[in-house]
Amino acid sequence: VAYFLFALGLFYAALAVALPVADANFLVHPYLQMGEQQSPINKPQSLCLCWAALTNRRVIWTINYRISDDNTWKQADKIRQRSAVFEGMLPFRLYHGALENLAPGKEFEYQVLKNGRVVFSGKSYAPKGNQTPYSFVVVGDLATGSSAQKEVAFRLGIEKPDFIVITGDIVYSVGRVLEYLDLFFPVYNAKLASAI
């Protein structure tokens, strides 16, 4: 589940090209998705924080998170990782850790630390309870490399739905991991939204 965006592409990505790097710390900036074990509605929730980085065994990654009205930071229990090695490409790793016991509908903050130094931080909301209205967007054919794709991403940023349902055809032309890195993440996981 934590690798839903890479699952199809990992089996087909064996291209001898350089990897696009998001910045000095990440190949793909951290993003949130549904946790592997979902709680019943109105119970504490779990979300998964995922990212990709070039392989460096000397790096120690940690995740801290807290409910926004609480000053106490919690450390995620365990960060799992999986190697991604393809001929002709720099090796990289996929990371994910669980943010657990989040109060339904409440804002929380999170940080990714690399060797004890905060290199990424963000805020979001836990999934809402069953008595709370929610909004969502259904999209497909997401990453074509077109200007329309950027307009859709920009509009998603304006609307701020509670969740997004992706119907399929995420990247073109064949769903290789490099197509995710070139066409999907730079647009839908960008630091700044842009309609250009």
Please describe what this structure looks like:
The protein has 196 residues and is of the alpha+beta class. Helix content is 15%, strand content 35%. It is built from three helices and ten strands. A four-stranded antiparallel beta sheet has the order 1-2-6-5. A hairpin with a 6-residue loop joins strand 3 and strand 4. The two termini are 32 Å apart. The relative contact order is 0.20.
Key traits:
disordered N terminus; single chain; 196 residues; 35% strand; alpha+beta
Radius of gyration: 17 Å
What gap, in angstroms, lies between the N and C termini? 32 Å
- The tally of helices reads 3
**Residues in helices, as a percent range:** 10-25%
Quaternary structure annotation: single chain
Q: How would you state the average pLDDT, rounded? A: 78
Which series of helices and strands comes N to C?
Answer: HEEEEEEEEEHEH
**How do the strands of the widest beta sheet line up side by side?**
1-2-6-5
**Tally of strands:** 10
Beta-strand percentage range? 25-35%
Principal-axis shape equals globular
Which segments are poorly predicted (pLDDT under 50) over 5 or more consecutive residues?
1-19
What structural class is derived from the secondary structure elements?
alpha+beta
- Let me know the largest β-sheet: 4 strands, antiparallel
Describe the structure concisely for a colleague.
With 196 residues, the protein is an alpha+beta fold. It has helices spanning 7-10, 147-159, 177-188; strands at 28-34, 45-54, 61-67, 74-75, 79-84, 92-102, 107-114, 117-125, 136-139, 163-166. The protein contains three helices and ten strands.
